[in-house]
Amino acid sequence: MDVLVQIIASGLTLGAMYAISTIGLALVYGSLNMLNMAHGALLALGGYVCLYAMTVLGFPAVAGVAMAMAVCGIAGLLIYHLAARPMLASRNFETQIFIATIGIGAVLENVILRVFGPQPVAQPLKVDGAVIIGSVYVPNQNILILGVAVLLMAVVAFVLNRTRMGRAIRATAQNRDAAQLMGIRIGKVYAQVLMISGALAAVSGIMISSLSGLLPNMGGDPMLKAFVICVVAGLGNVYGAVAAAIVLGLLESLIQYVFGVQYSFAILLMLVIAVLIWRPAGLFGRTQVVRM
Amino acid sequence: MSAVLDLAGVSSGYGHHLVIRDVSLRVEEGTLAALVGPNGHGKTTLLRTISGLVRVRSGTVSFRGRRIETLRPDETVAAGIIHVPQGDLLFPDMTVLENLRMGAYLPDAAQRESQRLEEVFALLPKLKERQAQLASTLSGGERRMVGIGRGLMAGGNILMLDEPSLGLAPIVIDQIYAVIQSLKSSGRTILIVEENATRIAEMADVLHLLDNGSFAWSGSGSDFLSSPEIIATYLGA
Question: What are chain B's domains?
Answer without folding.
Answer: 1-80+159-237 (3.40.50.300), 86-156 (no CATH)
